Amino acid sequence: MGSCADIHDAEPCGEHVIQVADERTIIATARGSLRLDNGTVLHDVVVVPGITRTLISVAALFKDGMHVSFSGHKCEVFGRLLFHGVVRGGIYELQGGTSRSAAASALVAQAPKYSKNDLRHWHQRLTHLNYNSILELENSGKVKGLKIVGPRILNDKCEACALSKVTARSSPKKATRPQLSKDEVCHTDLAGPMQRSIHGNHYFLALKWIGFTHISFLRNKSDAAAAFEDYLAIVNRRSDNQPHLIKVLRSDNGEEFEGTAFQSVCAAAGIEREYSEPHAHYQNGVVERANRTISETARTL
């Protein structure tokens, strides 16, 4: 709305910033209710001084349980049917006026023209510089022609900045859950393919448990299940009184660890499986670091 003339129970709302379809911002100064000719009452209507058209938010209609249908050259708003609209001049114009005057401005989805010197547009011009720095530049007078029109505070976020400036979360310094006993979790990872060894191997499987690292050389990734089964046999022979001490096996989501053969070995031994998240190497960092040490040592020989 452009004035409070048709608004019922109008109340000041401070400087309420609204972003319209073309990303410009407009300032509302009051809000209230608007009664239409057909008896429908629109709530939470805001007043923007100088606006020449009355805009209806489709999202707000959805929030109130309404449905909006656009087809061909017409649109309809209904829960029960509220409005009919037709296309005029490339926009959908809803048939109806306010209860004060049937000749009031029609309800259309068209935004007024506003200055492109608001804070948001300066933010875009200055390669998405943060808002506070733009305000500091304006106050310093170091940038000729930098004059911000409109509010100095924007509560919404810039979508382009959110998508383009996102960074990976830093690795936690400590475990985020109670640490398991050192004899409960075995960490494993497979490295390769590498240059074929004299025995025809292209991979190695590292298993880190209670501070010791065991290495098995493999011709193929599919050999990982048999290598782990052999490792369990070694562990059991060395722990006659407490067989199957390994309760949890942690690995990444490699196909060699998710295959039926590997799962069967773990199930037969009563070992629970844990998987690290994709690209979160720190979640299995114990064996990742062991793999790095082994690979670096081999390259130096």
From TrEMBL:
Integrase catalytic domain location = 174-301
Matches recorded under InterPro entries: GAG-pre-integrase_dom, Integrase_cat-core, Peptidase_S8/S53_dom_sf, Retrotran_Ty1/copia-like, RNaseH-like_sf, RNaseH_sf
Q: Name one GO biological process term.
A: DNA integration
The chemistry this enzyme catalyses reads:
Hydrolysis of proteins with broad specificity for peptide bonds, and a preference for a large uncharged residue in P1. Hydrolyzes peptide amides
Identify this protein by name: subtilisin
Q: What is its EC number?
A: 3.4.21.62
UniProt GO MF annotations: nucleic acid binding; serine-type endopeptidase activity
Q: Which domain of life is it from?
A: Eukaryota
Q: Which SUPFAM superfamilies match?
A: Ribonuclease H-like, Subtilisin-like
